[in-house]
Every structure is written in C-alpha cells, then in structure tokens.
Design a protein that fits this description.
The chain has 88 residues and is mostly helical. The protein contains three helices and no strands.
C-alpha cells in the first residue's frame, strides 16, 4: 500500500474527527452563551459576545455582580478567596 493510498483512506476519518471537534466546540459556545444569558437575567445587565475571554474571571465577575445586586456581603469573601489563590 503506497503512502498516497493510505492518506486517502484516512481522510474520511480525519474529516469525521474534525466535524466532531467542530460540533463539540459549537455546543460549548452555545452553552456559554446560555450561561451568560442566565447571569444577565439575574444581574439585570446585557452582555456582549467576547471572542477572547477568561472563563474563570468572567464567572468571578458575574458572581460579584450578583452578590452586590442582592446586597450580600459574600462579594468581599469572593474577593478574599481570589486574592488568597494568588499565593498558591
């Protein structure tokens, strides 16, 4: 079996794998958009789509917004935990 024949046989598998990965990434983006909509409803804000984001920071910021909007003092403890993690 020549290299070109082997390459042609593996192409369908590669295409299938790429489509599977593409579908998975699309589903994750949809999930993230849904999560943002949920947090937006809770906090009363409107978010815009960000192409580059740090999920951890985004969730921390949204939690702080929710804590502040419900007059809960846990925002300070979230900030303290965030600061403490810098030393880990």
């Amino acid at each position: 079996m020549s290299a070109s024949t082997k390459s042609k046989e593996s192409s369908p598998n590669l295409l299938l794998n790429l489509r599977t990965i593409q579908t998975s990434v699309s589903e994750q983006k949809i999930e993230f958009v849904e999560i943002r909509k949920y947090f937006d409803e809770l906090s009363g804000t409107v978010s815009t789509f960000k192409t580059n984001y740090d999920m951890k920071t985004e969730v921390l910021n949204l939690r702080q917004q929710i804590d502040l909007s419900t007059n809960n003092n846990t925002a300070l403890s979230v900030e303290a935990v965030h600061e403490a993690r810098k030393f880990d």
